[in-house]
Design brief:
- The protein is an alpha/beta fold.
- It has one domain: Spore Coat Polysaccharide Biosynthesis Protein SpsA, Chain A (Alpha-Beta Complex), CATH 3.90.550.10.
- An eight-stranded mixed sheet has the order 3-2-1-4-7-6-8-5, sandwiched between helices.
Length: 251
């Protein structure tokens, strides 16, 4: 099995930790290491993660870290990149879950030397998003062409597994902005091969604080798309319009 660091950023995530801990404990095989990084939470998240780590119930190598001041989404992701030890890493947001018990066995064949990014499919507690992702994934080829959108439509960023060397060379844009994860992935895909793994799923939870439920300003994202080719710009703008339409229906 390829070695994978499961890196989990935490910020006021107390409502989701019980489900997250249960998900981690049932993984078979587990990741090679797990790193929790609390981004200066104001709730009891950090204390609960420490208690989980100290219990010894998780047999995977586990570390708990804390930012002394809030670094934000991208800053926390980038610190986790620096802290990871494995060749591959996955940044799993605390309100997301790995669906299959054998998730890492399902993606193992795609974490091989010719690939730098492998992206698992999306499912959700929201019926519309779940149906849309299932429908969209039927049309996503295994080897992703550079112009084809996948995040937000058939996958969530938590489902992306990156070869760590690629993230060291190209960290996440800081500060993050709506759509910055898509721009980051497009930049990675200019140089690296990316595959879509339809047989493994990440559960994206829609809740009151979820970004999918917020009105967000995508103007900077649209500006950043201008650096890519005409087909990429067109398809990603249409994809954004469709996702915003779905978000209005969800809200």
């Amino acid at each position: 099995m390829p070695e994978v660091t499961l890196a989990i950023p935490i910020f006021n995530s107390g409502a989701f930790l019980d489900d997250l801990f249960a998900c981690i404990l049932r993984l078979d095989p587990p990741p090679s290491e797990i790193i929790f990084l609390d981004d200066a939470s104001s709730d009891d998240s950090y204390a609960r993660i420490q208690k989980f780590a100290a219990s010894g119930i998780c047999k995977t190598r586990l570390r708990v870290l804390k930012n002394e001041c809030n670094l934000g989404t991208a800053g926390t992701y980038n610190r986790l990149i620096g802290e990871a030890h494995c060749e591959w890493m996955q940044l799993l947001d605390a309100d997301d879950l790995l669906v299959e018990v054998d998730f890492y066995r399902r993606v193992a064949d795609d974490l091989e030397h010719n690939n730098h990014i492998a992206i698992a499919a999306l499912t959700s507690n929201d019926r519309l998003l779940r149906f849309g992702a299932r429908f969209a994934s039927c049309f996503v080829p295994h080897h992703l062409p550079r112009w084809l959108p996948v995040l937000g439509t058939a996958a969530t960023r938590s489902g992306a597994m990156y070869r760590r060397e690629a993230l060291i060379a190209l960290p996440f844009p800081d500060p993050a902005y709506p759509g910055s994860d898509i721009i980051h992935l497009l930049l990675l895909r200019e140089k690296h091969r990316c595959v879509f793994v339809r047989r493994a799923h990440v559960y994206y939870r829609i809740h009151a604080a979820a970004q999918s439920g917020q009105v967000r300003d995508y103007s900077l994202y649209r500006d950043k798309l201008d650096r890519f080719g005409p087909l990429t710009r067109l398809v990603h703008r249409v994809d954004l319009w469709l996702r915003q339409l779905a978000q209005r229906i969800i809200r």
